[in-house]
Every structure is written in structure tokens, then in C-alpha cells.
Amino acid sequence: MSTLEELRIVIAKITRCDEQEIILETALKDIKADSLQWLQIIIGTEMALNIEIDIDSMKELVTIEDFVKLTESYIK
Fold first, then answer.
1. Whole-model pTM?
2. 39: burial class by Cβ within 10 Å (0-12, 13-18, 19+)?
3. DSSP structure string for the chain
4. Rounded distance, CA 73 to CA 54, Å?
């Protein structure tokens, strides 16, 4: 399963949105999630991919593609 697919599953589960709405070009600000939900998304991603994400690095991300690239940088 690709990193995008994993992120889609986690984000859709937490925000209750349609997975198909989450594409690489989707702006993170367009995902209807509050700060607690974003924390759950980060933790869910870490658990799904067995990685640890630096939360401070999330502040610089703009799109789902940025999130995918960041996540992939932690996968060894």
C-alpha cells in the first residue's frame, strides 16, 4: 500500500470524509480537522507506518503531497 493510501485511510477515518477527496493536491487547510484531530492523524500515521514524525515539521506543510513526502522521509 502506498503512503498516500495509508494517509487517506487515517485522515478519512478521523475526519469522516471520503478517501477519494484526498489527493496529492489537497491543501491541508481544506481538510476539515481541528488541532486534536490533526494530532490523531499524526499518531495514526505513525502507528500505521511504524515511524515517528517530528510535529514541528508539520507546521511547514501545505498539501497532502508535502505530508506524503515528509512521511516517506521517515520510512527506512
1. 0.93
2. middle
3. --HHHHHHHHHHHHH---GGG--TT-BGGGS---HHHHHHHHHHHHHHHT----HHHHTT--BHHHHHHHHHHH--
4. 11
Contact 6, 47 (CB under 8 A): no
How far apart, in whole angstroms, are the C-alpha atoms of residue 24 and residue 36?
23
pLDDT (tens digit per residue) in 3-58: 999 999 999 999 999 999 999 999 999 999 999 999 999 999 999 999 999 999 99
Which residue carries 489527493 as its cell? 23
CA distances from 46 to 24, 53 (A): 19, 7
